Structures
1.
Amino acid sequence: MKVIFLCQRLPWPPDRGDRITTWHFRQHLLARGAEVHLGCFQEEDRDAEGVAFLKQRCASVVAPKLDRRVQKLTSLRGLLTGEALTLPFFRHRELHRAVRQWSEAPPDLVYVYSSSMAQYAMDTKAHAKVMQFAELDSDKWRQYATKSGLLGRWIYGREAKRLLTFEATVARTFSSSLVVSDVEKELFQQRIPGVVPEVLPNGVDVEHFATGGDSQRHAHTCVFTGVMDYEPNIDGVCWFVEQCWTKIRAQFADARLLIVGSKPTAKVQALAQVPGITVTGRVPTTPPYFDQSAVAIAPLRLARGVQNKVLEALSMSLPVVSSPQAAQGLGDVPPNILTVAETAESTIRGVCELFAEPARARAIGTAAGQWVRNTWRWERMYDRLDTLLLKLGVTFPQ
């Protein structure tokens, strides 16, 4: 089975949300015997190693380098053409040539992750074309517009409208559209009427994100994980520090906050000057930091979908205090597994109650780990993908 697989970032290493998802689903297609041709971008110096690694596994890999500073200027062409700025930002001749070459003999499947990459496959002939939106990117820009000043409202508002127009065209062109949760499905049908997407959630690597025990755990430490140049992460953790941290420290003088993730911006790095806060930058792996902590926090305000940081913390047998936005993609969660806190007051209360009762916190974490292992392991998501592809007449080699 021949597959063209397109995504924004090189799907290795699986150390951030989109890389995790694209790594696992691409890996599953390979494991089922598919011949995978991968098109994506390199954004970091270390990505050259990833290209070499993936070329050993895929039939071919085309991954031109993407300089975000240059592409931001390039994207301004969209103001002249009337299109969403996202599209020229992720447009590259080399990728267009590669997709044309790969599709000279029509593939069995074109699998696209992120709407910006669909521009490469709009006219491609294939037995089936799957668009994994995960979430509507246009709605991300809509949320940014609501939090911005006058200029930001105009730029982000324009992007939201123009990108939604493109997303609707993609959804009506491709064989199937996938979203990450029932919440996203409802929003999708409101914004793109007449198209009913399928739900394909993220999973979690429950073998990797498994607690090593309590020997290093500190009863008054909380942890936040994520790529720290991503605006929803910056907004969420800064809000937590500004609105909650002083009051938590007033109750627990030894309270610590670990902010764990690559590419911390200057605004995030400055948080390390606040008593009790550590900003790590990139780390080899996150489980040791979960195992130092009593509570994980996910105070995201500009996000929906299924948050990997929440799944990973739960898999590590940690209780999580989460905003409604970060929690709603999980659907029905058993009672007491997750503390959903909408305000600063309820967030402070949720963290402090868990700090005050270590035995209860550990019991909640243990139950959380068991639930995630039963419900959210990647193998379950692979089965769902296989079922979705079978509906499209896409079958794997025997």
Note: The chain has two domains: 2-203+378-391, 221-375.
2.
Amino acid sequence: MKRIRYTKFTGDLSSSFGLEDLMQALSDFLLDSGFNDPYSQFQEMNDQTLDNLREAIKQALESGDLLDEESQEKFDQLNADQVEELVDQIIQKMQDQNFINAEFPEEQRQGQQGDGNAEARFEVTDKGMDFLGYKALRELLGPLGKSNMGRHDTRHEASGVETNGSSKLYEFGDTLNLDLTATLSSVFAREGIATAVEGEENAPLNIEYSDLYVQQADYTSSCATVVLLDCSHSMILYGEDRFTPAKRVAMALAHLIRTQYPGDTLNVVLFHDSAEEIPISQLSRVKVGPHYTNTREGLRMAQRILARQTKDMKQIVMITDGKPSALTLPDGRIYKNAFGLDPLVIEETLQEVSRCKRSSIMINTFMLASDFTLVQFVQKVSAMCRGKAYFTTPETLGNYLLMDFMSRRMKTIH
């Protein structure tokens, strides 16, 4: 029988790995969507309580992927109390470095004895979400090789600071980004090389308004994007979690826009029986909801958001796996029909697509299912809005969506 000798723990294992590595190891737990994956190490921890976080950290430490060999040996020699102390230290560091915020029940904050039913909870901070988005972006774009992630190019040109090698005569209103070579060449062509009087070193150079040339730059447009995310119950049915990959893609897109396209905006709208807008920072806490798919209400909310934007380009990125099966009636009641393509639901949804077209809003649809009738509906939506339809899987969703966003086929602004 193996004998284990416990000694007094003097090292600081909580500092033997980076919190970024821990956040990555816990990403499946932190982004749980309500899908009970039998192969997940966090399958029984589907709620963001501090007790579940402690258990998830223990499992990450025990997995052997987080610690180096020497630290892992030290960890294996800890007794139960020492492990609990170590986990508490790690959680405190996660709070100190602003990866999570802990939320304690009111009676615990006031030092009172509670009824035992209220549990301490935590939430991932904006910094934590941004880090997870960065990691998701690297994972999604890594296999594709180097990507030239500039801004959204168009065929138009304007004077600016990012030059493309050409120049033009200065016109009132242009950014005064002088092309010195072209400007001086114009002066010398008119005045001759000996423009200074012999013997006068500080003789003025006679530059006229017509001599001024400015550098040309590619005109870069801005884009307002609304991610329309289906969170109906079908996104975790049929033995597959489709919602967590969709959340990862939304987070990666948010990080991409913040770092590479600072002039762009991104909003997230969830749609199910109805629809609501959520901040990006709340994505980690979102789980699948009711069973029906109110695509029309999601499109209506996305249009209201885009109507407030003053961007050159406006688009809706819709991620879904189901056909429209619900409709908000004028009196506020929800009409539902999950059997087949209901003519009323389809007609009202397509009318909303037409309104998007009249508002010059492109709809790009990423479909996580391949039902024949659903394919027909998506193709009709794409044709009406000059958008694109991608029939993909949770594994390839991110690659398709991010590369479509960066390559941006809609390049001409009228």
Note: The longest helix spans residues 243-260.
